[in-house]
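Methods, example record. To illustrate the input and output format used throughout this study, we show the complete record for Zinc-dependent metalloprotease. The sequence lines were provided to the predictor; the line carrying structure tokens was produced by it.
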Amino acid sequence: MLDLTVHDDTRRQKDLADRITRTLESVAPLVARTTGLPLPPAVRFRVVTPAVWRRESVAHLQRLLVRDISDLGLHPAHAKQLKRRVRMGGAIVPPMVLPMIMGWTALAADGQREVIVVPQALRHGGLLSHEPSLTKMIAHELTHLVQVAAYDDDPAWNTLVPDLRKTDKEVTSLVLEGHALWTDGQVTTQLYGRPVDQRHRGAQVLALPAPRNRLARTMRLDRARYAEAATFFNDAVAIHGVDQVNRIWQDRPLLPTKDEFTDADARAWIRRIAT
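The corresponding predicted structure is encoded as:
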């Protein structure tokens, strides 16, 4: 039995919390079957205000930093520099990206991963009036929770010092987002007959003020690369099966390289992990 919790921290969004609960109950078995990975012991979503989202976005980074400092014994000067960067980023970036973030998986104060959603962002993105898009977002973020369980919350997958963790942040981002996009596409195809396409949100994002437009363009470039990574996973699973692909979660040397991600049909990577 899935331990599922959806908190309405706003105390004004019970209907939305109920919608998320119902959707989670329907997509959870599809996510598990599609990925070939077990669901985590507990799944928690939180519906919050923009102010709480901004606060939690900074707290998430601070918790990652505390873990990095503890695990790696960072030099005090380096730790101080990272702390300053977190504070500055928290003051500037979260308010700018909020309208473009439909759902976000964060490290909570109790050490559990949770998905944070803001009704205003969902409304801006058109998700509240389009059930398939809301379903896509929920399946996507649930996949991130499944991934965390699959790699046993190895800090190398989510760190502020990837060089010291001996990991490539660009590669891990492509893997996590590409895999989640592939999964939500498979789930929405099973539910609606085809993948849900959210490119219609572009016009709303372009309506943002100029500084946000620049950030929006950067985020669109990222989404394009993540879409390519999703195609990569689709090809890899079609050729080699989900069990072979899932070896990456416990064996990071098997992760695709940046060059392998550019391979048209993932065959170079498949040949490497098959040996």
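Annotations derived from this record:
The CA atoms of residues 101 and 214 lie 15 Å apart.
DSSP finds eleven helices and four strands in the chain.
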